[in-house]
Amino acid sequence: MAKKVKNNKRQLILDEAAKLFKAKGFGGTSMRDLGAQVGMEAASMYNHINSKDEILEIICFHVSDTYISQLAQIEQTQASYVDKIKALIHLHIRLMIEDGAAVSVANNDWKYLTADKLEAFKQARKNYEKGFAALIEQGIAAGELQPVNTSVALFTILSAVRWVELWYRPGRGITAEELEENIMTLLLNGLAK
Amino acid sequence: MAKKVKNNKRQLILDEAAKLFKAKGFGGTSMRDLGAQVGMEAASMYNHINSKDEILEIICFHVSDTYISQLAQIEQTQASYVDKIKALIHLHIRLMIEDGAAVSVANNDWKYLTADKLEAFKQARKNYEKGFAALIEQGIAAGELQPVNTSVALFTILSAVRWVELWYRPGRGITAEELEENIMTLLLNGLAK
Lengths: 193, 193
Description:
The structure is a homodimer. By secondary structure, chain A is mostly helical. Chain A is built from ten helices and no strands. The first copy, chain A, has helices at 2-24, 31-38, 42-45, 52-76, 81-98, 100-108, 115-141, 150-160, 163-167, 176-189. In chain A, helix 4 crosses helix 6, helix 4 runs parallel beside helix 7 (115-141) and helix 5 (81-98) crosses helix 6.
């Protein structure tokens, strides 16, 4: 029980840290700011977390680990390449809707990771992009996808969904499901009829 | 002749400022850095430019004015809606390839504009987005485009091309024309065959 409370507090610290980093940047957020946000003295936060650097590290690798483990699962399915790519787009959109602050931090503040973690994070991102690109390449080879440049397709897709994290919230007049369906239509079938 | 030299120097200052702002951010760039980059004393730069704020303003409004005047031209043509939207995507890609640093500054550093300029810039951007969205809406009504949510289509397109400014350079193994053609295929016809 005591452990569960401790874990909950740790998660609360991480969640609030992600929101603060997103709003004010990693450099613009102090442990004091974070303490005020979660209602704890900076000193007692250190019972749950070692440093601001560690918080950034946990958030960034939580996001990259999610992408990489999901990619590995998707690669192993027997689905068509179109469906595999749809599953990856679904993953990006869902993660932005459900965990937008963490995704924003992993997209924008990863450069403040300490040197060894920075290298590991860049390598993880590169591996993910390679895996995603390989699915596109195989889909083109299988005749399922348009014969476009693989890097162009990869970065257009990754970039195309990024605005969701900044824009989407309840009250936009569109459900998460409709949003996702619309983006799938645009990226897989195109805007033109 | 003296005037031409002066204008050239002014343009050089603006071009180098855009590159520095892109690399180090508006806040991270001093007039001294800029002077070193263009090979002029900070004091003599003030013969060409009033302030760092003014430089930012000129760069941001150069970009927004380009978008807005091109949109007005495109709106007046008799082309199909598909072709009008292709013309806008062409404009975004070209501006990123030919004037990438300025586009980057207008995308990322606009928030450092002084209060009245900031409002004017946000209004200009809103007007541009409204005009772009109206073309999508009319294209859907005319049956030329997929019946997707207009905001989703607008932001997906605007976001989808943003990576070009960060990625594209000669030596990527793809010409600017091929890059553009590939992105058009993806956004208008989709990745799936």
